[in-house]
Automatic annotation (TrEMBL):
Spans through the membrane: none
Assigned keywords, A-Z: Signal
Domain of life: Bacteria
Limits of the DUF1592 domain: 472-598
Stretches assigned to the DUF1595 domain: 408-467
One Pfam family hit: PSD3
Keyword Signal: yes
Name of this chain's protein: Cytochrome c
Provenance organism: Roseibacillus persicicus
Signal peptide region: 1-36
Residues covered by the DUF1587 domain: 137-200
Domain DUF1588, residue spans: 620-715
Amino acid sequence: MVSPRPHFPFNTRHWFRRICLLLAVGTVFSHTRAFANPIEIPETLDDVLAFYCYDCHDDSISKGGLDLTSTPFDLGDKQLFSDWIHVFDRIKKGEMPPHDEEQPTTQEREDFLAELNAILLEADQKQVAEKGRVHGRRLTRIEYEHTLQDLLGIKIPLSNLLPADESGKDFETIADAQRLSHFHLSQYLEAADQALEEAMNRASRGEQQFYRKFNAKQLTAESRSVGQNYRGPQAINGRIYSWARAISFNGNMAATRVPASGWYRITVKNVQGVNPGPDGAVWATLKIGSGRSNEPIQFVADIIEATGDPKDFVCDAWMQAGHLVEIQPAEGTNKLVRIDPEARKKDLHFYHGRNLEQEGYAAIAFDSLTLQRVYPAGTRNKIRNRLLPGIQFSGGKPVLQNPDREIKRLITRFAYQAFRRPVSSSQLTPYLELALARYDETNDLFEALREGYRAILCSPRFLTFVEPPGQLDDYAIASRLSYLFWSSLPDQTLMKKAAEGKLRNQQVLLNQANRLLAHPKSERFFVNFTDQWLQLNQIGFTSPDPRRFRQFDPVLQESMVRETRAFVRELFDKDLSVRNFVQSDFSFLNTRLKTHYQMDDATVKAGYGLQKIPSGENARSGLITQGSILKITADGSVTSPVIRGVWIGERILGRHIPPPPANVPAIEPDIRGAISIRDQLEKHRADKSCAACHLKIDPPGFALESYDPVGRWREFYGKANRSAKIDPSGITLDGQQFEDIREWKAHFAKQHEILARAFAGNLLAYSTGADVRFSDRPVIEDILKTTKKDDYGVLSLLQAVITSDSFLKK
């Protein structure tokens, strides 16, 4: 490599600075290396840093908290390696040296980057070869739940029993962010016990049956027999009416309390909307809960869109013992029924002597409600085939000719499935001994298997992915595929391909990936990946101020989440380009979203739920301006271009945004809207240590200021002519001016390689359990080259990821 700047023009200032800096650097590094690491920075790199960087990044100034003169070139240290990657990236992107400082020549920059890149790449590849990309990944609580359910043939909620997962930078699957303590193990053991209890009880005793149909008389109470505190629906001419009321637990139906925890199919017959709004529907929630003030939490099982045409409504919901069903109109803009003052004096009910329909109140009307116990994962025979295959039963009891042989066969088979690979005799022995000892004590096959299976489910081979560094074997590839698409263990077909050693064949691998993606279980991928990538799982973390955003309600929030998931699924189903993240020609809307977004020209039919419609490349098209994203990136009262800008930068554009320095105060937007947030940010942008990050953060953040905290379009922060006007203009990091969100979108729709690089990195991180490393960068670039011909379709990117070297290595 040619040494940078071999001949310097005679310049006293340059030479004096250079000599002094080199002497200082020599002193600092010799001191540091004496106690840290004898590794020396290559002289050619040191020369460039001394000439262009040490002035601002030495032990006396340390701009941005970076002192390069005291940063050892020890690439075996994780933090130091990260620091040198940071140096590489800032120089490569032209962010350093600052534009107002002397710049290296093009040749100097290229030579510096080429040498540093080669050194960093070699160091990272060496670490990957020794330790692997992924360090000790365990099942997330969602993966643990699905794995137990699929392994045992049951479906009961288990993830709520386990500690919440840390999400690393973005994903819960990232191994470096995961923890595994004694507390975790005890919780996993409790979940395993509950799952085995359910499976063994049903395998031995069968299913509990429950079926009840409730008519109007059973679900309601006569007004003359109840006081003001009655919260249930009203019976009118044999039909049930649940009105929009200003009271908690409105719509409770006490008769629907269930005797045992389980899944119930709720069928509501001939549902109609009374006094529908301008969109032609009355929207309601169907909630499950105790219906008591000392246990106020209720869960939205589904949303109901009721029109003037009678239609049956059916949903399956998990109900705890003693919980009931509640149905109530739930649009925030509904006129709410309040008790008449005269009726209150007489302690009469709110609808006593009134015709609420004529008064214009909204209601959900229906004929009857049916509750039926169901078992979504299958009946007893399916569980027996999972836990006791090949065992004959007589009078409900297993028939065993040779108990020891049968127990060994069953334990071996279960361990093979749970560990997701063949099990050696030595690995099997402890579990087999436990099961046989228990059988000797009880003479009960179910008890013996429970003991052995329980131990297997608490084994590290079940809880974690046991993979040596280097290329994955076929069984590990099978697990990586199944946990990507199903968040669960491989099925028999995938295990058979692994046993045959065929999964390293690229075409076989892609065929299996397509098969898994086409299966109903792939819904788990679309839920789990989008929940973590887009942070949809945080949409309920804040509640919009009901006084300012009365139109926001549970129906709207659920509709927003469904809109985003349907949109992402469509991208994968049709292999559409990543440019749709910022700009698309279609949307998914229901009547509730249409009204909220004020998309009056959109053709959306009431009663048909989400519908794909052409939208044109307008301000609402694409992913990033959907209500769910705008709600997640606001705090319920105000918006912040910093929060939204960081979100767009990190999750859509692939730009790492470091946290602000500790001495920088937070910006509190003016809730009155009297002062523009742009004006408040100026003090941050004026500080050079803040300006570099704000160049990345502010442009998309400003563009999205045209949307309020619940995703509505706005021109002012508050009421027109009484608050600051929105200014959504800005300049992108690459110098492109834009006037509003439309122009910002149009610019990045043309920069879709940026979007593709970021998305490929997200897919790789989620699917492997490791953040993108420096040595993954060439892999990402190869993925982009492969998928460019497909306009960077999201499915093409996913397929390129799973056939990449990084995916196929630990």
